Amino acid sequence: MVQKNLIDGEWIAGSEAFRNINPSDTNDVVGEYARASADDARAAIAAAKAAFPTWSRSGILERHAILRKTADEILARKDELGKLLSREEGKTLAEGIGETVRAGQIFDFFAGECLRLAGEVLPSARPNIGVEITREPVGVVGIITPWNFPIAIPAWKIAPALCYGNTVVFKPAELVPGSSWAIVDILNRAGLPKGVLNLVMGKGSVVGQAMLDSPDIHAITFTGSTGTGKRVALASVEHNRKYQLEMGGKNPFVVLDDADLAVAVEAAVNSAFFSTGQRCTASSRLIVTEGIHDRFVAAMGERMKGLVVDDALKAGTQIGPVVDESQLNQDTDYIAIGRQEGAKLAFGGELLKRDTPGFYLQPALFTEATNAMRISREEIFGPVASVIRVKDYDEALTVANDTPFGLSSGIATTSLKHATHFKRNAEAGMVMVNLPTAGVDFHVPFGGRKGSSHGSREQGRYAAEFYTTVKTAYTLA
Questions:
Q1: How far apart are CA 7 and CA 171, in angstroms?
Q2: pLDDT at 15 over 90
Q3: Which of 52, 359, 410, 459 is deepest in the core (most CB within 10 A)?
Q4: Across-strand partners of 255?
Q5: CA 452 to chain centre
Q6: Domain spans, the chain
Q7: What are phi and psi of 113, to 5 degrees?
Q8: Catalytic residue among 89, 246, 379, 458, which?
Q9: Within 13 Å of residue 128, how many CA atoms lie on the same side as its CB?
Q10: What is the pTM of this model?
């Protein structure tokens, strides 16, 4: 059965369908999904525009009930939805279930936020005048999400959009439509009025472009590549719309001489290789001071030998396959580039064969890398990391900040002085001390600096900055 797009409360078949393939077993078709056309996207935008006046003035208990019901169903079905996620994206089953739980927690949080909408009442500088400051929904919000977190990222964009009274046109990554379709189906059955949430699956060049071209999209939130993010920005400026971008990262993880070696290695392995390195918060630059460098590299090699790379659904698998052939080719191309640049491939980087045909790659670790190499400057988005040797903390901080990106930054140290200084001086939106660079809570702000992000933060109460607009009203007493 072909899963359809949701437009104005109706499930609509596209002119064609595309297949969702399991990267752990390319013989396994997860499902078939309808591909929306540009006309479908325009119809979805029109539906969202028509639904906005009523939904934007809906009661807070109505929104709360729908988001809470959605959260409850996601959490009740976490094993089923987590398996679907792992099957279509390739992250391990434990990671897939964990991500699904996070999506449920996000909807639960914003269900609560519906009941906490607040403003301010201030005295005017003039006598007998009152001032009210309130937040109102922006309008029709376009949501474009990536393939690497196919349920969590849609959740942290859709939930606040609906919480604050916006209507939505949602385009998920074509590579992983299953989780997105499931979350839209749950929301639709939870009681959303028609037109409030519209799902248009398909190609970014068709569906995404129609969204960018429309003057009736009032705000657009995008997570994906830097190149596409720039196109979203340019199109949004033309229409004077709000836009929010989460793009690439080249996140550093600093290891100082005084670090607990076991803590540093575990955090580095998790940062660089878990989720197959396919996280914008992954650390592919391991910046290590001289006194601990050799011990760290040796310990990393030993730890990496024990990593189990296999079918995402198999018990005991720690790292699943790369998401598809195109991404696998990109990873292996960068491994070749690293060798050509003079870095030493100290471990891994080989294609692996398993019981089922899939896109399996042994995690790769380079040593003798410099921060000027392409493997240290460009986002690889795979299980490939480079060790960069530095003299001391000061050089480590300089190298860590020497990047066009600024999403996440980490340090392993037992020094309170260095940890405190690093938290203040790391040029990143998020800083981790003795923890992996990837992994953040659902109720706190997410986002970066420099080329990694543009606009206000996502998640938590900071989401209101993007999904609402501020109104100031004066009243003569």
A1: 12
A2: no
A3: 410
A4: 288, 412
A5: 12
A6: 2-247+452-476, 251-433
A7: -60, -30
A8: 246
A9: 2
A10: 0.96
- Going from the C-alpha of 95 to that of each of 82, 92, 192, 320, the distances in angstroms are 8, 5, 29, 10
Do 325 and 292 meet the contact criterion of CB atoms below 8 Å apart?
no
Sign of the Cα torsion 332, 337, 340, 343 reads negative
Q: Is 251-433 in the same CATH topology as 2-247+452-476?
A: no
Does the pLDDT of residue 477 top 90, yes or no? no
The mean per-residue pLDDT over the stretch 154-183 comes to 98
Q: Is 246 a catalytic residue?
A: yes
Find tokens 């692996």 and name the residue: 352
CATH superfamily, region 251-433: Aldehyde Dehydrogenase; Chain A, domain 2 (3.40.309.10)
Check 88, 174, 280, 458 and give the catalytic one.
280
Distance CA 447, CA 436 (A): 16
Q: pLDDT > 70: what percent of the chain?
A: 100
| pLDDT tier, 464 (very low <50, low <70, confident <90, very high otherwise) | very high
Place of tokens 């995690």: 363
Whether 439 has a pLDDT exceeding 90, the answer reads no
Confidence at residue 331, expressed as pLDDT on a 0 to 100 scale? 98
Q: Across the beta sheet with 430-433, what order do the strands follow?
A: 344-347, 364-369, 384-390, 283-289, 251-255, 408-412, 430-433
For residue 10, the cross-strand partners are: 7
- Identity of the residue numbered 356: T
At which residue do the structure tokens 């196109």 appear? 231
Residue 280 a catalytic site member: yes
The C-alpha atoms of residue 14 and residue 385 are separated, in whole angstroms, by 41
Instruction: Taking residues 197-219, report their average pLDDT.
Output: 97
Q: What's the confidence (pLDDT) of residue 8?
A: 98
Radius of gyration of the chain (CA): 23
Confidence of residue 316 (pLDDT cuts 50, 70, 90): very high
Domain 2-247+452-476: which topology?
Answer: Aldehyde Dehydrogenase; Chain A, domain 1 (3.40.605)
Burial 115-152 (b: 16+ CB within 10 A, else e): eeeeeeeeeeeeeeeeeeeebebbbbbbbbbbbbbbbb
